[in-house]
Design brief:
This protein has two domains: 93 residues, Rossmann fold; 138 residues, Tumour Suppressor Smad4 (Sandwich), CATH 2.60.200.30. The protein contains five helices and 15 strands. It has a 15-stranded mixed β-sheet that branches.
């Protein structure tokens, strides 16, 4: 049976050219273009394009392997270069793949007696840029703290190098199934004393944020949803939903960190 594929591409000249070459080469090798039920989804661009690809196929990720072709500025998810197209397709056809599955973070929002689930690769956020956000925070059904500030973020190990890192969160090895709870501009003084430091929790732990502030926004990866003014609870945990990423054989995580943050030579 022929392998089915699709391509999600960033709309710039280089990425579009690489996408065109990828499609032509894949079809030449007997792959079948299938936008609805692909076996492999190629993202051509940067990490933003990769996240777009995952969310586009979120309901079908169980049956899909994601392959990132790097034409952007950062390549945490996109492990391959345009020059690797021939090799990648040959390895897929020969089933010689280096893959890893990663659990998504799940946020269950309850508001107005309705529940809705959201999933993210990198992080989920609760934010209020208009006035101080006040949240009751519990961990595994025990009160942890009352948070006051601009917002909170819960990142996966994959997302720990993104927004989380920029606000002082720790970088987590991508092989560890952990979540990280980090504050966004917290109020910390003699009157209000939150746990300012990031908190890393395990794969079975559950964080719950409860609040009722107006103008509160919920974010998941690149998407944002405004909550109504009614009281809400947001339960955050690692989900059983996973994405499978195809990685290069010779690109360890330590090298990715060195290239991205420490000035190391880029090999993609």
């Amino acid at each position: 049976m022929a392998l089915k594929f699709n391509v999600i591409v960033r709309e710039d000249e280089k990425s579009l050219s690489v996408s065109k070459s990828l499609c032509a080469l894949a079809l030449q090798k007997g792959f079948v273009l299938d936008e609805v039920n692909p076996d492999f989804v190629f993202s051509v661009g940067g990490d933003g394009t990769f996240l777009k690809a995952v969310h586009h196929y979120l309901r079908k990720v169980k049956h899909i392997k994601f392959v990132g072709i790097h034409t952007g500025s950062l390549g945490f998810f996109a492990d391959f270069r345009p020059a690797d197209l021939e090799l990648v397709l040959a390895n897929i056809a020969a089933q010689k793949l280096n893959t890893n599955a990663y659990r998504l973070v799940k946020a269950e929002i309850t508001q107005n007696n309705k529940k809705r689930n959201f999933y993210a690769v990198n992080e989920v956020r609760v934010e209020n840029v208009h006035h101080t956000l006040v949240l009751d925070v519990s961990l595994n059904d025990e009160q942890l703290e009352v948070y006051r500030g601009n917002g909170v973020l819960v990142a996966t190990q994959l997302g720990s190098t993104g927004y989380n890192k920029s606000i002082g969160g720790a970088v987590i090895n991508r092989n560890l199934e952990l979540l990280e709870y980090t504050k966004i501009a917290p109020i910390a003084n003699t009157a209000f004393r939150p746990l300012v430091n990031p908190l890393i929790i395990g794969d079975k732990d559950v964080l719950v944020f409860s609040g009722k502030s107006a103008n509160t926004y919920f974010g998941y990866d690149a998407f944002t949803k405004k909550l109504s003014n009614a009281p809400f609870t947001i339960k955050v945990s690692l989900s059983n939903k996973k994405i499978t990423i195809v990685h290069r054989q010779n690109r360890p995580y330590s090298r990715i960190l060195n290239e991205s943050f420490l000035g190391g030579k880029h090999d993609i």
